[in-house]
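Tokens in:
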């Protein structure tokens, strides 16, 4: 557990340095500790070490772990199926992966029915790399999806999210991060809304993401260590 605390502290140091190098304030950047495949006691240790935001790729993992982990803000960062939408709303505080109209409608319907006073913050996941195996709305369809979300009063759209094509070189991610930021800026102008958040960057490329404007970075391996 000491090693985990040290790794978390080192990631925070790197986040702060990347922010400084980009002439940004580190307080603008939310570090999401991604506990995918790690048990609840390890995830809980990260919270004890100072993590305030936790990420999970699978709804069922978050549902199982949350009751066993100290209080934190839970982010769903993996694909969301309509049949898991209610469970996601029950366990997660922030959804990063809204990418299609039918999912938007399902979330809105569930919130109206079961949580009539609640608004949940969401991000639109954009498939900037146009990878057929990945979720995410295509860039040219993002405006239509955004307009649909804006018509749903229970969804608080905060910005965009991307998972770029994998590459060993962190710099390979930069064009995709930049394209997401440029798309966000265009949507912000078109709809005259803030869209303050950009969720982009993982363990191997979060510093590049911060340089390109990330406000949320999703870091797993650099905090929890290699997955088995």
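Residues out:
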């Amino acid at each position: 557990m000491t090693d985990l605390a040290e790794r978390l502290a080192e990631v925070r140091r790197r986040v702060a340095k990347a922010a400084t190098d980009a002439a940004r304030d580190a307080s603008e950047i939310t570090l999401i500790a991604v506990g995918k495949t790690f048990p609840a006691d390890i995830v809980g240790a990260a919270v004890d070490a100072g993590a305030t935001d936790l990420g999970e790729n699978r709804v069922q993992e978050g549902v199982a772990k949350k009751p066993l982990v100290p209080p934190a803000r839970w982010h769903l960062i993996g694909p969301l199926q309509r049949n898991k939408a209610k469970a996601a709303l029950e366990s997660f505080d922030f959804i990063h992966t809204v990418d299609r109209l039918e999912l938007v409608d399902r979330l809105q319907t569930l919130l109206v029915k079961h949580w009539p006073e609640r608004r949940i913050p969401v991000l639109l996941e954009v498939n900037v790399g146009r990878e057929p195996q990945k979720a995410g709305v295509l860039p040219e369809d993002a405006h239509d999806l955004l307009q649909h979300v804006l018509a749903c009063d229970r969804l608080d759209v905060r910005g965009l999210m991307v998972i770029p094509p994998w590459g060993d070189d962190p710099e390979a991610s930069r064009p995709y991060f930049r394209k997401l930021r440029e798309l966000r800026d265009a949507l912000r102008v078109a709809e005259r809304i803030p869209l303050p958040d950009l969720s982009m960057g993982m363990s191997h490329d979060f510093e590049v993401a911060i340089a390109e404007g990330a406000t949320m970075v999703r870091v797993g391996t650099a905090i929890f260590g290699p997955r088995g």
